[in-house]
Design brief:
The structure holds 2 protein chains of 2 kinds.
Chain A lengths: L1 E2 L6 H16 L8 H10 L3 E12 L5 E11 L2 E4 L8 E3 L17 E6 L8 E8 L2 E9 L5 E7 L5 E15 L29 E2 L3 E9 L2 E7 L4 E8 L12 E5 L2 E8 L2 E8 L2 E7 L3 H9 L9 H17 L1
Chain B lengths: L8 H6 L5 H13 L1 H18 L22 H6 L8 H10 L1 H18 L8 H4 L20 H24 L12 H11 L5 H9 L7
Classes of the chains: A alpha+beta, B mainly alpha.
Chain lengths: 322, 216
């Protein structure tokens, strides 16, 4: 990963500042403008192309980073990062949610305008606003609906993440049914009822609605979405072993506990332990938004009598087994 | 008068905090001094006015939000989840603002985790050895050693069952320590990214396709 310096994102930041004033001045039209986003989501699994994308992101200290990688799409099959990370990330669909994500217009002010030419292709620009300022910008290919550039801004209008195609060949629409999945990843077990003591509110701060819950080894993942961004809450029993956590990070308070927060290329991670449960939140929103959502998670419930009985039995067995 | 104007001693006098000798001296001065007499009346009036104010309770948590007041023993209570919900915001604010308490929190949390990670140790053999199996003293044998073997076995079995029951009830009755967890943060990031990458798969997944590294 090459450090690019915060200055490399200065131009998009200026652009963000300009559109901030535009967004607040122009009446927001809801409904129709969000359709472009839905079209982009559908296009992800119905186009074929070969190309490369550039990723720029800013870490928690303001340092810039950038990386480029090849990308290959064949309808529902997407392969990223050949040569960057072995094996390449191959994706053929999400985990399947229990309910659909909220309408983006419930949280964001959505507006579209004529976008720039990207790699010679006309685009439509989608601006997502929160409280009168632009929080995200997406440029969608007019012909196919493929999203060619996406920028996420923080509360100050600074670009914290940019993903854009820098080369693109053979872009065409293919039917999703005509492309066979090359490699299916193993199914992720969905659970209808989140076991105690893990908290599973139906909504988190920032308009994140619960979309589904999944078993991930010893942890339970609860997936939330706001119609544009997603956030996962991973809960597992036991207090976090500090030696098992990534180094660095920023120390902060979460509901009476001292947690840690890290920035990575795709967003934020917050981890803390409370009442014998460790919670890890991963979100692709701006830092303040992810932290607010994490702090809105209720504390784990106290163990039930059967749970304490099981725990006690386990300790007794351990005592004799030792 | 042998003393000058009593000044701050007036308040102490009114609070009954002076020695008898000091009190009588101040009283004599105030009786003969119109300035101090007026001051005494003012102090009395102020005290009465303050006492007449309705009692107000400080907002919950405001005390701990003050940087000068450290959370101290509350750290352990926080880790045990024993803190009232209305105190949480103040403690959170203090932990975020006070490096000393945040460091103490980390140390306590680490110590708890380390303690729970300690391996179980077998007790010395003789600790679990039944009392009747110990070698009897040569002289003056204790009473239990004179019991018949069957009676001793019955008593020992009853005691063992009772001890096990008490032990299990004791363990069940409290929130036992959970084993330390090892959050697979990098795996969580990958799992999150591939769960549902939002409005666009390419821009949602590309960051996860890079070698994942964490920074502040």
């Amino acid at each position: 990963m090459r450090p690019g310096g915060a200055a490399s994102l200065a131009v998009p930041a200026v652009a963000a500042a300009l559109v901030v004033s535009g967004l607040s001045a122009v009446p927001v039209r809801a409904g129709g403008d969000a359709e472009v986003l839905r079209r982009a989501q559908a296009a992800s699994s119905s186009v074929a192309f070969d190309g490369s994308v550039l990723i720029r992101w800013v870490d928690g200290d303001g340092g810039g980073h950038e990386e480029s990688m090849p990308v290959r799409g064949r309808g529902t099959e997407l392969e990223l990062g050949v040569g960057v990370q072995q094996p390449a990330l191959t994706w053929s669909g999400g985990v399947g949610t229990a309910r659909t994500a909220p309408d983006p217009t419930a949280k964001y002010q959505v507006r579209t305008e004529i976008g720039p030419l990207i790699l010679g292709r006309p685009t439509t620009r989608v601006l997502l606003g929160l409280d009168g300022r632009v929080t995200e910008q997406a440029d969608v290919d007019d012909a196919t609906g493929l999203l060619l550039r996406r920028q996420v801004y923080d509360a100050q209008g600074v670009t914290v993440r940019l993903v854009e195609f820098v080369t693109l060949e053979g872009l065409r629409t293919v039917g999703t049914s005509s492309v066979a999945s090359v490699r299916e990843s193993g199914p992720v077990p969905r659970i209808d009822r989140v076991p105690s003591p893990f908290p599973a509110p139906t909504e988190l701060a920032g308009g994140y609605a619960r979309l589904g819950a999944y078993r991930r080894g010893p942890a339970v993942q609860i997936l939330y979405g706001d119609g544009v961004r997603t956030l996962s809450v991973f809960s597992q029993l036991g207090e976090a072993d500090p030696s098992a956590l990534p180094t660095g990070g920023e120390r902060l308070a979460v509901r009476g506990s001292v947690g840690r927060r890290w920035t990575w290329a795709g967003g934020q991670v917050v981890t803390w332990s409370q009442r014998g449960t460790t919670t890890t939140v991963v979100g692709d929103g701006p830092p303040a938004e992810v932290l607010a959502a994490a702090r809105s998670i209720p504390e784990p419930s106290p163990p039930t009598f059967p749970a304490r009985l099981r725990q006690a039995s386990r300790h007794v067995i351990q005592l004799f087994a030792a | 008068m042998s003393i000058a104007h009593p000044g701050d001693l007036l308040s102490a006098w009114l609070d009954g905090e002076l020695t008898p000798a000091e009190a009588s001296e101040v009283a004599a001065h105030v009786d003969g001094c119109s300035v101090c007499g007026a001051e005494r009346d003012q102090v009395k009036a102020s005290r009465l006015a303050v006492r007449g104010l309705p009692p107000l309770e400080a907002p919950a948590g405001v005390l701990w939000a003050t940087p000068a007041v450290h959370v101290g023993d509350l750290i352990s209570a926080c880790l045990d989840g024993e803190i009232a919900l209305d105190l949480r915001p103040g403690i959170d604010a203090h932990l975020a603002a006070c490096p000393a308490c945040a460091a103490e929190h980390d140390e306590v949390a680490w110590a708890r985790t380390a303690l729970r990670a300690l391996p179980l140790i077998d007790p010395p053999k003789d600790v679990l050895r039944p009392a009747w199996a110990w070698p009897a003293p040569a002289e003056g044998r204790p009473a239990h050693a004179q019991m018949r073997p069957r009676t001793r076995q019955l008593l020992a079995a009853t005691a063992a069952v009772a001890a096990a029951g008490i032990g299990v009830l004791g363990l069940v009755g409290r929130e036992g320590p959970a084993d330390p967890s090892r959050p697979a943060v990098a795996s969580f990031v990958a799992q999150h990214s591939t769960s549902s990458p939002g409005p666009d798969a390419v821009s949602g997944l590309a960051p996860a396709a890079m070698p994942i590294s964490f920074t502040r």
